[in-house]
Automatic annotation (TrEMBL):
Keywords: Oxidoreductase, Pyruvate, Thiamine pyrophosphate. Its cofactor is thiamine diphosphate. Coiled coil: none annotated. NCBIfam families: PRK09212.1. This is Pyruvate dehydrogenase E1 component subunit beta. The keyword Oxidoreductase applies. CDD domains: TPP_PYR_E1-PDHc-beta_like (cd07036). It comes from Paenibacillus glycanilyticus. The gene is pdhB.
Length: 325
């Protein structure tokens, strides 16, 4: 096992697939010689050449269009959108062309594309760089949405995403790139897309989260345990497909739940998770399922983002509310 941070794990996954399959290509703004803004692709162009890892013009619509065109020709593009706020320029290509390709062609063509993008707050980045826009993709049929929370999952999920025959929107939290190191197997392995992970066992309440919020939830669970409250923490890993079975199994044990997301509260992933819980497990609930999320405002400027983001204290407060309902 090697010790890797999440950035290195994602890079290693792409390296594994570039070696394994000559149809895998990586492209985007500054991903070649520079290695990307965060150096995720550093060294890959030198190792695999400019025909496999190359820079594009500063045009997200062109990046998306190139990915769609290459995908239907048998390539497996890994297209980087430099920051999540820039996907608006590529939404037609991502959420209409790629996502509907199999349907539109009656199964003749597909879009085996990974759209990579960093997102997430807590790093004091500029406007449009840190928004959580996963909700836009979740509502789009035909595209999978993956958000890893740790290096092991990041590598396994990236390999699985590259091998998937449908488009995958792979979101990488900025605050996790270099946050910590963990053991990551060398060589190839996959983590199943659509399978959640119970990262902490508990019996009193279920906390459901993804991405950076998994770590925030674990911190909250540590605080709750000091008062004798045992919280179970579920890392969704992927939002589409959603592993509702793991969530329901946990709620049957704990009978209470909250859902944590960094994105604004209204119409987000948490709302969808709660709707499915109500459809499949409402008779096992002893309290309403609450949300802990960002406020329904534009993502704030860096000076005040720490007061905007969900915190362990807010999660603890929500848990106490469902426990005393």
């Amino acid at each position: 096992m090697a010790q890797m941070n999440m950035l290195e794990a994602i890079r290693d996954a792409m390296r594994v697939e570039l070696k394994r399959d000559e149809n895998v290509l990586i492209f985007g703004e500054d991903v070649g010689k520079v290695g990307g803004v965060f150096r995720v692709t550093e060294g890959l162009q030198e190792e695999f050449g400019e025909e496999r890892v190359f820079d594009t013009p500063l045009a997200e619509s062109a990046i998306g269009g190139l990915a769609v065109g290459m995908g239907i020709q048998g390539f497996r593009p890994v297209a980087e959108i430099q920051f999540v706020g820039f996907i608006y320029e590529a939404m037609d290509q991502m959420f209409i062309q790629a996502a509907r390709m199999r349907y539109r062609s009656g199964g003749r063509y597909n879009s085996p594309i990974v759209f990579r993008t960093p997102f997430g707050g807590g790093v004091k980045a500029a406007e449009l760089h840190t928004d959580s826009l996963e909700g836009l993709a979740v509502q789009t049929p035909g595209i999978k949405v993956v958000i890893p929370s740790n290096p092991y999952d990041a590598k396994g999920l990236m390999i699985a995403a590259i091998r998937d025959n449908d488009p995958v929107f792979f979101m990488e939290h900025l605050n996790l790139y270099r946050a910590f190191r963990a053991e990551v197997p060398e060589g190839e392995y996959t983590v199943e897309i659509g399978k959640a992970n119970v990262v902490r066992e508990g019996s009193d309440v279920t906390i459901i989260a993804y991405g950076m919020m998994v770590h925030t939830a674990v911190k909250a669970a540590d605080e709750l345990e000091k008062n004798g409250i045992k919280a179970e923490v579920i890392d969704l890993r992927s939002l589409v497909p959603l592993d509702i079975d793991t969530i329901v199994a946990s709620i049957k044990k704990t009978n209470r739940a909250i859902v944590v997301q960094e994105a604004q509260k209204t119409s987000g992933v948490a709302a969808e998770v709660i709707a499915q819980i109500n459809e499949k497990a409402i008779l096992h609930l002893e309290a309403p399922v609450l949300r802990v999320a960002g406020p329904d405002t534009v993502y704030p400027f860096a000076q005040i983002e720490d007061t905007w983001l969900p915190t362990p204290a807010r999660i603890v407060d929500a848990v106490n509310k469902v426990l005393t309902f």
